[in-house]
Amino acid sequence: MSGEQFSDPFEVQRLAMVELQLRQRGIRDERVLNAMARVPRHLFVSSEKQSRAYEDQPLEIESGQTVSQPYIVAAMLQALELKESDRVLEIGTGSGYLTAILAELAAQVFTVERQVLLHQRAKERVEQLGYRNVVFTLGDGSQGFPEHAPYDAMIVSAAAPRIPQALRDQLADPGRLIIPVGSEDTQQLLLARKNQGMERVEVLDGCRFVPLIGSQGFPV
Ligand code: SAH
Fold first, then answer.
1. Which residue of 81, 101, 124, 136 has the fewest C-beta atoms within 10 A of its own C-beta?
2. Which of 2, 63, 68, 215 is catalytic?
3. Is 36 part of a structural domain of the chain?
4. Residue 68 a catalytic site member
């Protein structure tokens, strides 16, 4: 196969990422795999990092933050079992990479970022790619986004000392929430399910995320 038939020069690398880093490592959810085959990860990092955008690692973005490793993104999304009709809350917009994938998988995405530069850049990128089902806001996501609650699903890409009560309160019933919880250095990925007023929490894996900084996160 010649690369010339691809209009996006990174498409070959992106499809290889999906096969080798995701499918062969146990990601089975075809909707997640298809969405990650479509979203151009290289457009969410600075131009000098574009050639590394499809490697098996997190990458630095602006303001000392990181875009998560593709496998972690896929594993979180597979566990979240998003439906096309879901309204999703994302905390920690960062580069907007996960936001774009969520926009492929759900009906509406609401995303909160505390750093103004990241918020603005992510909004520009995601809108330029043509996604029209995302609401961006600047603020402390440890308090959720009460204006649009409740949410069928929530995904937090920054680590919290515990599950913020505001997120529990803004989760629909039934609803699912995925969040890394632990210390600033090391955490466990938790999947909380709300059903008929009851919460069940499952530990998925060990992980390492940047801290969630805010009133219900870590101090500034
Ligand atoms: N999913 C993102 C990963 C971003 S890293 C991506 O695909 O690029 C986590 C992000 O959470 C950082 O941008 C950080 O600024 C943000 N963050 C940390 N605390 C926050 C808070 N209280 N509210 C909103 N965003 C927060």
1. 124
2. 68
3. no
4. yes
Ligand 1 pocket by C-beta < 6 Å: which residues? 61, 65-68, 91-92, 94-95, 97-98, 112-115, 118, 140-142, 157-158, 210, 212-214, 217
Q: Return d(Cα 80, Cα 61) in angstroms, integer.
A: 25
Do the domain assignments include residue 15?
no
**What is the distance in A from the centroid of ligand 1 to the CA of 144?**
13
CATH number at residue 168: 3.40.50.150
Number of domains in the chain: 1
Contact 95, 44 (CB under 8 A): yes
Give the whole-angstrom CA distance, residue 196 versus residue 203: 21
pLDDT tens for the chain, residues 1 to 220? 444 455 788 999 999 999 999 999 999 999 999 999 999 999 999 999 999 999 999 999 999 999 999 999 999 999 999 999 999 999 999 999 999 999 999 999 999 999 999 999 999 999 999 999 999 999 999 999 999 999 999 999 999 999 999 999 999 999 999 999 999 999 999 999 999 999 999 999 999 999 999 999 999 8
Is the pTM higher than 0.85? The answer reads yes
